[in-house]
Write a structure and sequence with these properties.
heterodimer, A: 303 residues, MetI-like fold, 12 helices, flat, B: 325 residues, mainly alpha, 2 domains, 76% helix
Chain lengths: 303, 325
């Protein structure tokens, strides 16, 4: 009998010969990465994000001056060679402060979203998985929380707890938790309708196994996308709260509080207002671009 | 239909109680003794004790909560401002119109800009206008509102002196604050209009309208836009929350005497009754607006209307304005 050799098998052989090694199995994650790589804007966002994280990590090395070093003879200087972004009203180098600012906004932004998703997401997953009364009770409680707009809630919590990074993380994570629980709930509900969940249940998978092994991995795309957008919003909230004096206060170089201090000297030194705001915008823009790309890559049906 | 409205109205009761509960818990966890704020740190012990009695701080937490809720529900008594001694409610209501105007003016302005922008983007997909408006949308959601306000302040008030830097005397004072709050909404709403319009133009009824030789403008605006606006209106609900938050910051930047500025000033003075009153008032205003939005949504969405009318209820996934986002 002649050996069966189909064009598809030939294609695999050609691929094997080209790669010189085992052919990589195609997984959904690899497919998504392939699609993401093709999206130029998303890659730009990702590169900016990586650079920002590196800036935060190596702030000591990168910053030309200490963030609190006061050169009183060089107050409110416009950008020059010695001070690329100029100096503020205490003669501090703005570039150095902006670099150190990445150490504050990024961790607070990420951490608060992680907490919001961990708590809210768990509640949302429980609600979606159980449905019925449990779902109803959990979501009605979330409704009550959501009857205070997130920004107002964050202001209220930050005002009650006082200033500081930890309180700021709490304020943002509590105020955004209901919205995050809704996202996870909706994602799980969509996945739950699939036949493979039915078959897992038919084969007697425990509820924990159904949720963790089958539902979460399939819902993770939606959750990851919304995670990225949430970090963008959280970073905006961090700076807004710090701007109105409810988050990180001077002399810590938080971008929002730098702008708040700069407002006083707006007439004499308008350059103080430019760079910290630009940094916030670049960070948020990078996250939004990456998030947009992630959404398109993880859910190709949307295109 | 009536059943839904009644259900939705009754739901307001636990919502209001929940808001009061959250505000009460926040006031409980606030560090510092409220007595200090009224009589000062160095007051003699008898005075402090008398004040404590008068403020009802000796009673157990649960009793205080019930008294707190009872006072607010029956008399609208939000306490007295530590700073001025005036009833908080009176001070709040004097400032509330400005906050309300600011919030809604910014939403209306945003809608006036966003809907045509989204419509053009959808009709001329991938054109220069589409790309530009989507870039603007991305920019709008990425720029910190308060920074945008500071920059416009710098350009239009300090450098060009076209507009006042603070206050709301006359029309020109409103321009910058409304623009600041509106910028984030324009992007968001334009994107929603675009994607919803793109979905609508693929529907059969649009093809039918075109097939019967209807004018293209009529097809797009009357048949298309009317249906495409349903998700946009759902999204306006979200916008209200964001705009209210924006209004608080705008009032502080542009020195507008509104509830937000009053609250932030009170936070700095540790004047908690005023802060709590502000939160309660804004949360209440927000909930009532959301209620109106929800009811409006059921009125305009023909699918929901038919669900309530039909006898053998077809299960249509009901979306409240908040869930749609």
């Amino acid at each position: 009998m002649a050996k069966l050799y189909t064009p598809a098998m030939a294609a695999i052989d050609r691929k094997r010969a080209k790669h010189k090694g085992p052919v990589k199995q195609s997984t959904p994650a690899r497919e998504a990465w392939k699609r993401l790589k093709r999206n130029r804007l998303a890659i730009v966002g990702m590169v900016i994000l990586i650079l920002l994280i590196l800036t935060a990590v190596f702030a000591d090395v990168l910053a030309p001056y200490e963030f609190d070093e006061q050169m009183l003879k060089e107050r409110n200087q416009t950008p020059s060679r010695a001070h690329l972004m100029g100096t503020d009203n205490y003669g501090r180098d703005i570039l150095s402060r902006v670099i150190f600012g990445a150490r504050i906004s990024l961790p607070i932004g990420f951490l608060s979203v992680i907490i919001a998703f961990a708590v809210g997401g768990t509640l949302g997953a429980i609600a979606a998985f159980n449905g019925g009364k449990v779902d109803n009770y959990i979501m009605r409680i979330m409704d009550i929380f959501q009857s205070i707009p997130p920004m107002l809630m964050a202001i209220a919590i930050a005002a009650s707890l006082g200033n500081g990074a930890v309180n700021l993380v709490l304020a943002i994570s509590i105020s955004t938790m209901p919205a995050r629980s809704r996202i996870v709930r909706a994602a799980i509900l969509t996945v739950k309708q699939n036949d493979y969940i039915e078959s897992a249940r038919a084969m007697g998978a425990s509820s924990r196994r159904q949720l963790i092994k089958y539902m979460l991995p399939n819902a993770i795309g939606t959750i990851l996308t919304s995670f990225t957008f949430s970090v963008a919003t959280a970073i905006l909230t961090v700076s807004s709260l710090s701007y109105i004096g409810l988050g990180i206060t001077a002399p810590t170089p938080e971008w929002g509080s730098m702008l708040s201090a700069g407002k006083e000297f707006m007439r004499q030194a308008p350059h103080v207002l430019i760079f910290p705001g630009l940094m916030i915008m670049i960070t948020v823009l990078a996250l939004n671009l990456f998030g947009d790309g992630l959404r398109d890559a993880l859910d190709p049906r949307l295109q | 239909m009536l059943k839904y409205i009644i259900k939705r109205l009754i739901w307001m009761i636990p919502v209001i109680l929940g808001v009061l509960c959250i505000v009460f818990i926040l006031s409980e966890i606030t560090p510092g003794d409220p007595v200090d704020a009224v009589v000062g740190y160095d007051a003699p012990a008898e005075v402090r004790e008398a004040m404590k009695e008068e403020m009802g701080l000796n009673k157990p937490v649960i009793v205080r909560f019930i008294i707190y809720v009872w006072k607010i529900v029956t008399r609208g008594d939000l306490g007295k401002s530590y700073a001025s001694g005036q009833p908080v409610l009176k001070e709040l209501l004097a400032r509330f119109p400005n906050t309300l105007i600011l919030t809604f003016a910014s939403i209306i302005v945003a809608l006036i800009i966003a809907i045509p922008l989204g419509l053009i983007s959808a009709v001329k997909q991938y054109s220069i206008i589409d790309n530009a408006s989507m870039a603007l949308a991305l920019f709008g959601v990425s720029i910190p509102q308060f920074w945008f306000a500071l920059l416009t302040l710098l350009v239009f008030a300090v450098k060009l002196k076209w507009l006042p830097a603070s206050g709301i005397e006359g029309f020109s004072g409103w321009v910058l604050p409304v623009a600041m709050i509106g910028i984030a909404n324009v992007g968001n709403l334009a994107r929603t209009t675009r994607s919803s319009m793109l979905e609508v133009v693929r529907q059969d009824y649009i093809r039918t309208a075109r097939a019967k030789g209807q004018n293209e403008v009529v097809v797009i605006v009357i048949h298309g836009l009317r249906n495409a606006l349903i998700p946009v209106i759902a999204n306006v609900g979200n916008t209200i929350g964001v705009s209210l938050g924006g209004a608080i910051i705008a009032e502080s930047i542009f020195s507008i005497s509104g509830v937000g500025k009053y609250m932030l000033d009170s936070i700095n003075q540790r004047n908690w009754p005023s802060v709590q009153g502000g939160i309660i008032l804004l949360a209440l205003a927000f909930s009532i607006t959301m209620l109106i939005m929800d009811l409006l949504y059921t009125l305009i969405d023909p699918r929901l209307k038919s669900e309530f009318r039909s006898k053998n209820r077809i299960k249509v996934k009901k979306k409240t304005t908040r869930e749609a986002a």
